[in-house]
Amino acid sequence: xxxxxxxxxxxxxxxxxxxxxxxxxxxxxxxxxxxxxxxxxxxxxxxxxxxxxxxxxxxxxxxxxxxxxxxxxxxxxxxxxxxxxxxxxxxxxxxxxxxxxxxxxxxxxxxxxxxxxxxxxxxxxxxxxxxxxxxxxxxxxxxxxxxxxxxxxxxxxxxxxxx
Amino acid sequence: xxxxxxxxxxxxxxxxxxxxxxxxxxxxxxxxxxxxxxxxxxxxxxxxxxxxxxxxxxxxxxxxxxxxxxxxxxxxxxxxxxxxxxxxxxxxxxxxxxxxxxxxxxxxxxxxxxxxxxxxxxxxxxxxxxxxxxxxxxxxxxxxxxxxxxxxxxxxxxxxxxxxxxxxxxxxxxxxxxxxxxxxxxxxxxxxxxxxxxxxxxxxxxxxxxxxxxxxxxxxxxxxxxxxxxxxxxxxxxxxxxxxxxxxxxxxxxxxxxxxxxxxxxxxxxxxxxxxxxxxxxxxxxxxxxxxxx
Lengths: 163, 294
What we know:
Radius of gyration of chain A: 16 Å
Largest interface: A-B, 29 and 27 residues
Mean pLDDT of chain A: 96
CATH topology of the largest domain in chain A: Ubiquitin-like (UB roll)
CATH class of the largest domain in chain B: Alpha Beta
Order of helices and strands of chain A: EEHEEEHHHH
Number of strands of chain B: 14
Order of helices and strands of chain B: EHEHEEEHHHHHHEEHEEEEEEEHHH
Number of domains of chain B: 3
Distance between the termini of chain B: 54 Å
Largest sheet of chain A: 5 strands, mixed
Oligomer: heterodimer
Strand order of the largest sheet of chain B: 4-5-10-6-7
Structural class of chain A: alpha+beta
Number of domains of chain A: 2
CATH architecture of the largest domain in chain A: Roll
Helix content of chain B: 25-40%
Radius of gyration of chain B: 19 Å
Low-confidence stretches of chain A: none
Strand content of chain B: 25-35%
Distance between the termini of chain A: 58 Å
Structural class of chain B: alpha+beta
């Protein structure tokens, strides 16, 4: 059984582990690091529930090997909250962007990458931006509103900070 | 789903990667974006015993114009192609193509080289590259056993379903697309059931004009044959024409005749031929519009 020693910085904290080469990143996150906010939905690269940021880029962590993250930075939903909820988390709460919540961590991580690249997306850009994430109960209307809420709030904060 | 066991290798140079492939033989697979390979490994449809990860070869990630060609490094991510200003301005057909591949999360990792080297006729770049008469640059071992670098014309690259002209110890390193010369335009149209699905069918059209008349045409189809299908008769019918709507529709019919669709959950053979006809005609008309012609 082939194994490797890897160190991955997850939510700012360096984690070292001896892992099988075939271990998927999502299993490193959930099983080795006990960060169960990242969900496994379809396990077939379709649903986006397992989305995390890898060096700032949104990826489906069920389709990346843990060894590929060696020496790199991973951000999961647990890494979003600072002193207060992240504007995206707040947006999902305020705009009723979730019912069952299963897709929410993936939706938020995809939206984080979207807003990092494009701070003021149009509604259409948001819809395309989250098109790799499936929601089966809330419906997308309020998810889109939640992302718009976060975009507005981040813009306001940036403007205030600049004055 | 857990993939079978394998040994992971992460070479830091192209030479090291090629040497590894030579040593490990046919049980080794190259890991690029991994978004075709890893799902296949999870389903145990692929069980390589060695993975050679070429994500460390960051010098294979580039998009540049050079010596009359657009050169795309094999490790260029689909998301890079999708957001490149150079591509949007001079090669909009490649933007058409990259932005309909899978979904945005997949495109953040999936590579242009992988989309082609996988040899899947359901992938989108193969047809586009056939229409554009691209060339595939591959690197292999130098010395007695091989000649190092070679360039394969796109029409010789796709051999069958998931089969290409790549040897076991070769790596696809670059895709070269002839730069627009004179009046030309190109477009890719795909019909998919939903975001993330493979094409029901797709059609790529690349047209060159001499005055008002079409002087050269490339028409190729996605997911309606064992390889991307070049619609030769459709191409021939366009050359010399003014590319009117009627000409485009006629070429669409010829493309539908050239397609070899198989009925499945995406539609019947008849339906897919109808899709090929419509998409080919639309791609031709958009290619003409983009050429600046009337």
